[in-house]
């Protein structure tokens, strides 16, 4: 069971760690990266103790740019190939 449920908007982006962070009661920071969020991860862990939090976020906000571009592409046209 997680220590708390925290919305991503309540977390801070830490440029040095390249992760969203939130204060842990032990004095360290819960951490979760953008890559974790893109993969659907919702658990931010504290590196100094056993606590973790559940991050509430909209997965579409962190979808990979490549997958967004692919969904906007029209399906390729099929071409007939003659075989001799």
TrEMBL record:
It catalyses: 2 [3Fe-4S](0)-[protein] + 2 Fe(2+)-[Dph3] + NADH = 2 [4Fe-4S](1+)-[protein] + 2 [Dph3] + NAD(+) + H(+); [3Fe-4S](1+)-[protein] + Fe(2+)-[Dph3] = [3Fe-4S](0)-[protein] + Fe(3+)-[Dph3]. SUPFAM superfamilies: CSL zinc finger. One of its GO terms (cellular component) is cytosol. It holds the Pfam family Zn_ribbon_CSL. Keywords: Iron, Metal-binding. Pathway: Protein modification; peptidyl-diphthamide biosynthesis. The keyword S-adenosyl-L-methionine does not apply. GO terms for molecular function: metal ion binding. The keyword Iron applies. GO terms for biological process: protein histidyl modification to diphthamide. Residues 2-58 form the DPH-type MB domain. Belongs to the DPH3 family. This is Diphthamide biosynthesis protein 3.
């Amino acid at each position: 069971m997680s220590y708390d449920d925290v919305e991503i908007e309540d977390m801070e982006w830490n440029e040095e760690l390249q992760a969203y962070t939130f204060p842990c009661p032990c004095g360290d920071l819960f951490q979760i990266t953008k890559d974790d969020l893109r993969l659907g991860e919702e658990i931010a862990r504290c590196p100094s103790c056993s606590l973790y939090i559940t991050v509430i976020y909209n997965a579409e906000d962190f979808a990979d740019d490549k997958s967004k571009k692919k969904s906007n592409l029209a399906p390729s046209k099929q071409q007939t190939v003659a075989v001799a």
